[in-house]
Specification:
Blueprint: H1 12-21, E1 25-27, E2 39-41, H2 43-62, E3 67-69, H3 79-83, H4 86-89, E4 91-96, E5 103-105, E6 128-131, E7 134-137, E8 147-150, H5 155-160, H6 162-168, E9 175-184, E10 199-209, H7 215-232, E11 240-244, E12 256-264, E13 267-278, H8 280-289, E14 295-297, E15 302-304, E16 307-314, H9 315-326, E17 327-333, E18 339-345, E19 356-360, H10 366-379, E20 385-387, H11 392-402, E21 406-410, H12 412-417, E22 419-424, E23 430-434, H13 438-445
Parallel strand pairs: 3-9, 19-20, 19-21
Antiparallel strand pairs: 1-2, 4-5, 4-6, 7-8, 9-10, 10-16, 11-12, 12-13, 13-16, 14-15, 17-18, 21-22, 22-23
Helix pairs in contact: 2-9
Bound molecules: glycyl-adenosine-5'-phosphate (GAP).
Residues 153, 155, 185, 187, 196-197, 200, 202, 204, 270-273, 312-314, 316-317 line the site of glycyl-adenosine-5'-phosphate (GAP).
């Protein structure tokens, strides 16, 4: 662990309250009392999460010429999960308290002698295996023949389609296949808000490389690329660590592995795993399906099984990280010397759900309202905008709390000389800008 790392100065209570108040994240099915491990993204949260996914997609797919896009079904042939090892080995150890009936993951308890909730001694059951895959039934019969699973990771859809994809897109290793999609895990103890949930989104890159001795170099390049991505989007470097797994912490087939971790208010938590997976996954599917998933090298007239480098990031965890990392509170003093507290989310402009807020100085002056609407509409093709009106102090407070980098105020001077005030979120400094120049002004800064 980095010794000088300090978590963001915010509690999870503050984050969950802000998330609900401003429409980022709500408990799923709240009116029925909620359902453990499921969350809904509100109007701003849906945009925030989409921006996080777009930032990943842009970097991994659009800005490269060696990665292709993919989107597989959530429910796959049940044999997929036999071959992948999930049916036999995707377990957590579960213990129950015979007294309070609460359920725990054995590896989360420091001792099995005493229940951490009710405090009773010797009430915990022996640990037993609990498979984390969610089951469903296909068709009208609910028997073992109709049993299927909601995928616990998106990666397997890529592996079973490896041949379809490389043949149809005319690719040869090294090349990657990327997909973002929902995954489901029946977590025993979901918790820490959207950190450990039962339905979540993963962004996975499966990068297939030739078996020519350069595999570890590709792995190192991906670790570096992922480091750059987090730093480009402004995640504080002292709250981020790339933990290299030791040989005993890695699966037997993996030559290397790195967990990307963020220092959450409760401690370090994993955002992403980067792994050198050898030929394990393709081999496993070839064995069970009997189908050939090797790569045929036309030039060499020979075939081989490519080595896989995987980067698997949780989009809900990354979105939560963006929220927590952006959170700041400040004491500000107005012209009369009065102090007040300001909550401000310092989102990267590309991640901020609203990039430009536009307001009239007074909502009862139709000329100001109309001009503000016009400006907001004219900026829509270039930025994520929001029109709002009301008390000036409250307008800024609201936009600071949702992390809007720039706010435009239309006032009486605007009607006279066609200029507006543009306020910058972090410094709160204000510039007077001509209406015709707003687009360029914002373009340079966003
Ligand atoms: N294909 C590899 C794979 O699935 P993983 O480490 O099990 O690897 C990758 O998962 C990422 O998915 C994690 O680093 C995390 O960000 C996210 N993730 C896994 N389980 C999750 C859960 N219960 N809730 C939210 N995100 C989760």
């Amino acid at each position: 662990m980095s010794t000088n790392a300090t978590a963001a100065p915010v509690t999870m209570e503050e984050i969950t309250a802000l998330a609900k108040r401003r429409g980022f994240i709500f408990q799923s099915s709240e009116i029925y009392g909620g359902i453990g491990g499921f969350f809904d993204y509100g109007p701003l949260g849906a945009i925030l999460k989409r921006n996080v996914k777009d930032a990943w997609w842009r970097e991994i797919v659009e800005l490269r010429d060696d990665v292709v896009a993919f989107d597989s079904s959530i429910i796959m042939h049940p044999n997929t999960w036999v071959a992948s090892g999930h049916v036999n080995a995707f377990h957590d150890k579960l213990v129950d308290c015979r007294n309070c009936k609460h359920r725990f993951r054995a590896d989360h308890l420091s001792s099995l002698d005493k229940c951490p909730d009710c405090g009773m001694k010797d009430t915990l059951t022996e640990p037993r295996n609990f498979n984390l895959m969610m089951q469903t039934a296909i068709g009208p019969m609910e028997d073992s023949a109709s049993r299927a699973y909601l995928r616990p990771e998106t990666a397997q859809g890529i592996f079973v389609n490896f041949k379809n994809i490389y043949q149809s897109s005319r690719r040869r290793p090294p090349f990657g296949i990327a997909q973002i999609g929902k995954s489901f895990r029946n977590e025993i103890t979901p918790g820490n808000f959207t950190f450990r949930v039962r339905e979540f989104e993963q962004a996975e890159l499966e990068y297939f490389v030739p078996n020519d001795g350069n595999d570890v170099r590709y792995y190192d390049e991906w670790v570096t690329a992922r480091k750059r991505w987090y730093s480009d989007y402004g995640i504080r470097q002292d709250r981020l660590r790339f933990y290299e797994l030791t040989e005993s912490e890695r699966p037997h087939y993996a030559k290397a592995g790195t967990d990307v971790e963020y220092l959450f208010p409760w401690g370090w938590g994993e955002l992403e795993s980067i792994a050198h997976r050898g030929t394990y996954d393709l081999d496993a599917h070839m064995k069970l399906s009997g189908k050939d998933l090797t790569y045929f090298d036309e030039a060499a007239k020979s075939k081989y099984t490519p080595i896989l480098i995987e980067s698997s990031a949780g989009m809900d965890r990354t979105t939560l990280t963006m929220l927590i990392d952006a959170y700041n509170t400040e004491t500000i003093t107005d012209e009369s010397g009065k102090e007040s507290k300001r909550v401000v989310l310092r989102f990267h402009p590309k991640i901020a759900p609203v990039q430009v807020g536009v307001f009239p100085l007074a909502r009862n002056k139709p000329e100001l309202v109309e001009r503000a609407h016009e400006i907001e509409r004219s900026l829509r093709p270039f930025a994520r905008t929001q029109y709002d009106e009301g008390n000036v102090g409250q307008l800024y407070r609201r936009q600071d709390e949702i992390g809007t980098p720039y706010c435009i105020m239309v006032d009486y001077q605007s009607l006279e000389d066609g200029t507006v005030t543009v306020r910058e979120r972090d410094s709160m400094s204000q510039d007077r800008v001509g209406e015709q120049k707003i687009r360029d002004y914002l373009g340079e800064r966003l």
